[in-house]
Automatic annotation (TrEMBL):
Top-level taxon of origin: Bacteria
InterPro entries per record: Extracell_matrix-bd_GA (IPR020840), GA_module (IPR002988), Ig/albumin-bd_sf (IPR009063)
Species for this entry: Lactobacillus mulieris
Pfam family, one: GA
Extracellular matrix-binding protein ebh GA module domain location: 66-116
Coiled coil: none
Name the record gives this protein: Extracellular matrix-binding protein ebh GA module domain-containing protein
Amino acid sequence: ATTLDGKMGDLKKAIEAADAKKSTTAYTQASDTKDFDDALTAANTLNSDKGDNEDAEAVQAKIDALTNAKLDGEDQLAKAKSDAIDKINALTNLNKAQKEAAIAQVNAAETVAEIQP
């Protein structure tokens, strides 16, 4: 029971970390959040009063699923920035100062939508 109590404490921490991650670029700009959302839902269900009685191993599996769910938002944003900068540099009708200003705007962007019109 002590091991299970410890695992449930770890599960609560993993849920808190996952909830916090939902406001990060990794989540908000991710191409797909389904695996992460499903893992968080399963963890929250297990952590609730209505959750199944699971052993420590099953609780650890939920923690692992939540921890290992991949979010590619940082990669998506970096790729969008890189692609936009390549396009800006390829424009022949802009002078150096105009290109630098446009690139600075791209680098300051925090979402893919800010970069891609």
